[in-house]
Amino acid sequence: MAALVPGMPHMLAADAAPSWARLRDATRRTGDRLRAAGVETLVMVSTQWFTVLGHQVQTDPHLVGEHCDENWYGYDYGRQRYDITVDTELAFGWADAIDARGLQSRKTRYECFPVDNGTVTAMNLLDPEHRFRLALVSCNLYAGVDAMRVLGKAAAAAASQLGRRIGVVAVSGLSSGLIQQWISPGEDRIADDHEAWDRRMLDLVISRKHDDVLELREEYARAAQVDSQLRVYPFLAGTGVDTLESCELLEYGPIWGTGAAVVNWQ
Amino acid sequence: MSRVFHVPAGTSASRARRAGPATTSPAPNVSFVCGAGSAGRGSASGRIVAGYLAPHPPHLIYADNPEQNEPRSRGGWEVLRWGYEELRRRIAGPNRPDVLVVHAPHWITMVGHHVNCVPNPRGISVEPIFPNLFRYHYDFRTDVELAESILAEADGLGLVTSAMREPDVRVDYATIGALHLANPAWDLPVVSISANNNPYFYSDAALDEMEVLGEATRRAIEKTGRNAVLLASNSLSHLHWDVEPDLPEDMSREHAYNQHQYEWDMRLLSAIREGPTSRLRELVPRHIEETSSETKAGSLSWLLSAMRWPDVPGDVLAYGTVIGTGNAVVEWTDRRA
User: Fold this and answer.
1) Which of A46, A57, A81, A182 should be substituted to probe chain B, the one whose Cβ sees the most B Cβ atoms within 10 Å?
2) Low complexity: which segments have biased composition (chain B) (predicted)?
3) What pTM was computed for the model?
4) Which one is the CATH code of B12-17+29-333: 3.40.5.10, 3.30.429.10, 3.40.830.10, 3.30.450.370?
């Protein structure tokens, strides 16, 4: 099973906009499905852990702490605790598989390492009882389609070698027309042109037209300022989402002007 | 120009945020009191003593091996670090300012211009991109009165703002980098301003908005009577390698990303050296277009606007590359001040 989920913490707001609440519920439902599928480890990429040199793989066995966000600190959702167990065996295997495919992995284990808000938000919604283990790679902002696909393939190969039952999760937004105002939740909206682009791409995604998605990705990225240019899609493709039988859009809506969606592949 | 920034700025919500709604820490009710070198404080005769382009690659601190940073190195990037030595010499002694004000592109704020109002930020900043190079223990004082004044002025000029009063927000490496390299003793108070854009994956900066922020900064400095040094924490050309050598400070691997990047950096620096800075109004955006310059985060435009685009040449103290990016330490002083 695989999923695309948003990484914006607004989904956790006590006073949530209708779309934030629907996206939160959809992300939680995705977690239920992952558990029902018997997933042991989530293989994850988050656009909010963006890097520029190589591909960082988290190898700290236990990520525990609190994230206080540098932008959203003024809201109840600006501070989140996290307690994440890393599947280090898979993480090291993944890093080695990345190296073996000609890319540079960078094993990352540092005390006080700041886990990104997207990962923390996604894990708290997908896995509130901390049942899953996590294998996490950074999102290199200069990585092209081929490199992202290789990262996905390397994850699948490493998991297969270990006999690990994985669920793949890409934490990313879609269009990123952030509203440059301090708004109340009820004021949230997506610009019409961004929404049109988001829906066009989501239609292709759920129709499982992978080649069309990849072909349109750059144009979409330019037109709608897409979060990390939708780099997560070739990552998902690399893990093999194109071999899964179905794709479902659970929810789509705005988060502070950005486009956000929850998509499941099963 | 990014459409992100084409939404009209609203100020009522910004004013509301100045009190720090929904934060778990109460807003400080006392202002920082400066120590030595605060002549002119409160006399409303403040001025910007000097402005510096002050690049922040973590490699420079890593190479310096200060006690605050955990990793150890064999050195490297000496020419840039010598440039910072000269900067430190120039802001010492009789030229010592009351405060350092820094605008940095790695405190990325998605909404509005934020100013750090935490009186004593302290903690460890592990850099998520370069954790092998930068794990820095910081402990510094904020000039809260000036920080609040910048917010008030920015708000009055129509910018969306926020006073950041959360001590648990990690201070980013671009802020720490410029401040440490300018003043490793950390014995001057600081004001730290965020970059209201994400130069990496959301948008381009709105340089016109940075001009307004610069104006707000100057007004606040004048009204609070501070003698201030401004630090624009930006690199220049910003294409760089996508892998790291086994020895990060391997200088045999260090050079400009390509000739085009180098030549455009030299074109910009030549214009800076010749002056006046008004030439840069057109050249900076062109340089950004040609080199993906980090100045698109707006720090340099903020600095020059704050200094009223002084009719003087800049003094290039050093230039060097770091993982292929261009970096220069440059000084401007305003003879009109």
Assistant:
1) A182
2) 8-27
3) 0.91
4) 3.40.830.10
